[in-house]
Fold these 2 entries.
Entry 1:
Amino acid sequence: MRDAQGGDARAYRALLLSLRPWLLSYFKRRLRGGDVEDLVQMTLLSLHEKRHTYDPQAAFMPWIAAVARHKLIDYVRKAGRRVHIELTEDLGLADGLSTELAHRDVTVLLAQLPAEQARFISLQRIEGLTTDEIATSTGKNPSAVKVSIHRGLKKLQALVGVKNSGVADE
Amino acid sequence: MSDPHDDLIDSLASGLTPTRPLVDSRLWLGTMFGLVLAILYVSVVFGIRPELKGLWGGQWPDAFTPIGKPLLFLLLGLTSLWTVTRLSRPQGEMKLAYWLPVAAALSLTLFNMTLELARDGWQVSAQQLNGGVVSCFSTILCGGLAGLAVLWRFWLRRAATTYPTALAAISALMCASLMASAYALHCNMDAPVYIVLIYGLAVALFTGVSTLAGRRLLSW
């Protein structure tokens, strides 16, 4: 998206193509009985018109999810009829999230944490190490590692706008 | 035969032009520049009140109100400005905390006004409403409108908020409050009843009308 803001049409096209399946899945999961394809197109148009509101220093998925959510609510309001809608906030791979975008967001988000905390989270959540293994490899107290990871994950949740969903330590 | 959905993507990508992202620091800088202009306008057209001029010579005023009144509206304006930056993007959340300074400022002034009314009664308090009402109202309304027009031109029309009504209200509150803080550097009417009924009414009126007009303009 940063390249797209700079005018790189190829990067932009690739981004839109990778977003389309995610948007389709996002709307299909939340809206039953509506024209999902229409919504995807409206969202792509809005993304295009409002692309300058994306902060290049921030994670991308919370931004596009907010655009999609706004278009969904707008669609339901304008449809003037009853549709089944689920406003779940999870933005996971279940919606067909592109792994490339997910990796980029993880990197951006972890960069906003203190280096050690980001490293603990990366070791646990990406490398799959246990708290004890992290403590041994870094020479830290297991309790301190556990607390640091817990707090770091809560900070990450706040950064992507997830409210009090609870953080599992392991 | 080409996929119509890919056609849309192709057309969006082929018509792509570079765009300048919204940068919060530019809004802060622009607003500070606007505030300086407002202060210059008030000081040239109306003049700064003597108690505040005395501050340059190190002379502290007897009462805190000459300083507190501009500070109150400045705080309100800056809080609103911060909220505008938070609400201008799609993922911006509406939080109760954003309104706490507004509620605190309002409660403090209302509390003082109630004390004054209880002590002096309405007849005496009403006499403190005489003076500068027209210039106070017109400066806050016209200055706020000028500020809001510039804010719309450079920021709001590019925003994509999930809360158009709140963003319209808070933007208007910001412009009116900052203009009120500039005007308060001149105004020597310090009675709480004046601050609530004249300043408060001007700011509230401007905020209300702008909210009604702005909520549609901010829809996207």
Note: Chain B has a mean pLDDT of 88.
Entry 2:
Amino acid sequence: MAEVTLRIFRGDQKGGQHVDYKVPLVPGMVVLDAVHSVQGHQAPDLAVRWNCKAGKCGSCSAEVNGKPRLMCKTRMDALPTDRPIIVSPMKSFPLIKDLATDVSWNYKVNKMIPPFQPRPGVEWKMDQRDVDRVQEFRKCIECFLCQDVCHVLREHGKMDEFGGPRFFVRSASLEMHPLDGASRTRLLREKLGIGYCNITKCCTEVCPEEIHITDNAIIPLKERVVDQFYDPLTMLVRKIRGASTP
Amino acid sequence: MTSKFETHELDVLIIGAGGAGLRAAIEALAQGVRVGVVCKSLLGKAHTVMAEGGLAAAMANVDKADDWRTHFRDTMRGGKFVNNWRMAQLHAQEAPDRVRELEQWGALFDRTENGDILQRAFGGHTYKRLCHVGDRTGLEMIRTLQDRGVAMGFDVYMECTITRLIKDGDRISGAFGYWRESGRFVVFKAKAVVIATGGIGKSWKITSNSWECTGDGMALAYEAGAELMDMEFVQFHPTGMVWPPGVQGLLVTEAVRGEGGILRNKNGERFMEKYDPKRMELSTRDVVARSIYTEVREGRGTPHGGAFLDISHQPAEYVKRKLPSMYHQFKELADVDITKGPMEVGPTCHYMMGGIRVDAETGQSSVPGLFAAGEAAAGLHGANRLGGNSLSDLVVFGRRAGLAAGQYAAKAAHGSVNNAEIDDAERSMLAAFERPQGEDPYQIHRDLQDVMHNLVGIFRNEEDLKRALVELEKLKERAQRMHVDGSRMYNPGWHLSRDLQCMLTVSEACTHAALARKESRGAHSRLDFPKTEDAWGKKNHVIVKKGTAMAVFEVPVRELPDDLKQILAEEK
């Protein structure tokens, strides 16, 4: 049976290195299968998160040959198997152990976003076309690969000032909900730092759900922020009235 | 008494953060008590996200003739009448309100032409009844409940495994567990505990279930003296992927058949015409699973040992819109374009109808302060669950258990947590590290999966079941000698060594109950007793711990009141 070498990061906050494991290649195998094979036969304490193994839960995020991927959706036969396949934990988050990282920051950001608030007296009817637009965002499985790849977080570590693509997607799902009545533009501008995004589309490229994060979520939200805070006419009216920004 | 371990004091502790656990937490919080949710994975990753087809509720948005009575009748018929009728009634009556509530909390279901929630056909349901979001309904539900709970401010203890329930006398007083990340131990003092830990599929080799579905809650409750019921009824979903090997068992939603998918054998025959000419592909899951299995066993299977499931006669755009994740799943994992050709599918261990025996109204078990809801609880589905009735189960009975637990806790005082018991719980968790060598938990797990797959599968007989009990004894004995390598920090081998104990307990319970039921009913098919017998339809099996042994006894199915009998008698 053909074998392939998996070069998996082993270690924790104290340090670590990549270790080579030989794994028998099975037809249709995905990287997560190979990692499980290592865990079940060679390295029982190899830490890796997973749940559904079907691209629906977003648990098995890692960097395969340097690319942020869901391991359950990365076919071995799509990778060059004549050299080691390098599997590393997501770089943007603090390491726990091996392939498991501390993603708790994401849950903290999420708490800042005001939940869905139906407009008062709203009738619970919606058109499928309006729903379609939001359902795209609600496909998000919270794998946090977009957060991992975003240079504002990855290179610049602006966790304190920037919410990241995942939470722009969540904000968009609420802002564009046909029946929602709350506004999150001030939060997007001031706390989630949407201005830091310079639309390089790295997030869109890695999204396993193929959500058009930049085009359909971030850019429209940026426009809302601009409309509300920087629209010249509104600013003029505001100046005349002496009101502060909304 | 103070513990040497990190201790959290709560009113209600909820174990499990799937649909049932989250819905229970929301309702318990609304009672003004302190609520904590413990889950083995990260929040939002529970097995509920895998639910695809929809949530059954008689909203009558598409078929105006639908009502709770019809849903009740379908559920009882699907369950072959050994269901807890009161649960089936409450479920059918309350599901529409629970759906509306989800919508009011932000869930976005697919719509009808006039803007209402769209409903689709599913096996065993008389009318189009499943509220859905394409084929990712579970994700929509869990995200909605998660957001609601976060907004209400519940405490979530993520990546934490409970290994023991603590009692003060007869009643629940807390729980002991460990943080998966650090391996450190933690004690929760709680007046009430709600078990919402889901299923047990990981005991079988081919399963749609994730690593979490190891029957923890059922095993914890059993150890704490609660009763398990209907453990012989394990649902094999008819359509799991069969190829490639790595995805074997992965769920192919029933919505494929709901949207018109056709099953054929290798000769191109639409074989459901033989097994259920009236309902065809939309027969109940037990029937379809056995039919596929039989086709394969009799030599009419596909190249990889399954059946063909074809939806390619529908327009490609329609398939991609209504079944997007199936489209991607097959394209990416099996190199099959389902808009152009058939899928290969076969039965996969999917769902446990049995579980903790609870009161229909409150979800309380026989142990005061211990509640259960969702897949971990028994009763609603009887001998076979209809597709779509699980998501509705989660919200209907999750809410009821959370409400009852919250009200119970508001009145109760904290019980004491016995340090000797904590010490014992700690010792049992550390034993596998202390042995210099011993059995490998991964190997025992693989062997257990073989035993359950080969001997306690879709078709059963006395000889196999008796052999399974012997094999399970050997595995239990080996499990006493497990050795774990590495440190306590995020150590999956160690985690498995604990989960394995739960799997062994529930596997044994399933096998005992399967051996005791000498008939075939719903998901339980005995080759040596192929008929469904009226006398057996009046009995449920209950399993309880007696000393160190497992005792099985029969309890009568509760008699239906006349008005419900009337509903069942109506022909539709």
Note: Chain B touches chain A through 65 residues (CB under 8 Å).
